[in-house]
Amino acid sequence: MVRRWVGIGILILAVGACGPFCGNGKLNLANAKLSPSSFTCPVDATDYGYFIDGTVDADNQTGKAVQIKSMATDVTVVKLAGIWGLRVGDKSSAADIQFAPRSIGSGQKATLKFATPWTCTDSGNNTVETYADFQVVLTMVTDNGTYRVTLPNHRMVMS
């Protein structure tokens, strides 16, 4: 009977000690940010290119390093004001965007940084407030599966 209680005590200690070190066995992603969150397209610009930089905090609680193979962004128009050649619900994407780091060690935390390209055209003929809000979703393909993170919205403003 005493051996049984000693065995249970050792098991409880082992599980308790593992708590802060073993994690939940997942790659956890949180605290997604975009910069700039809003961009004003220059007047009389045609296919003006700019980048939106983003970050996502990653906490690798798996038992192995996670290799990131690629990142992409998917964008959906969620709100429009003024006259646009788009509609709410229209979609676009950017594949194989720039990112770093490419690996996160087991038990390590890292801030993933990425840049997704955008373009805008502004004729400068806007007589009313004109902007579009876009929902941005980051897709990250790893050797541990595919992850999707909904980022804060990005607003494009026309002068």
Secondary structure category: mainly beta
What's the order of the H and E elements?
HEEEEEEEEEEE
Oligomer: single chain
Amount of helix: 10-25%
- Into how many domains do the coordinates divide? 1
Mean pLDDT: 89
Sheet having the most strands: 7 strands, mixed
How many strands?
11
Number of helices: 1
CATH topology: Immunoglobulin-like
Q: Using the 3D structure, state the CATH architecture.
A: Sandwich
Radius of gyration: 23 Å
Estimate the global geometry from the Cα principal axes: elongated
Folded structure, characterized:
The chain is elongated and about 55 Å long. Strands 2, 4, 5, 7, 9, 10 and 11 form a seven-stranded mixed beta sheet that branches. Strands 1-3-8-6 form a four-stranded antiparallel beta sheet, with no helix packed on it. The N and C termini lie far apart (80 Å). The chain has a single domain (24-158), classed as Sandwich (Immunoglobulin-like). With 159 residues, it is mainly beta. It has one helix spanning 2-22, and strands at residues 27-35, 38-41, 45-60, 66-81, 91-94, 98-100, 103-104, 109-122, 130-142, 145-150, 154-158.
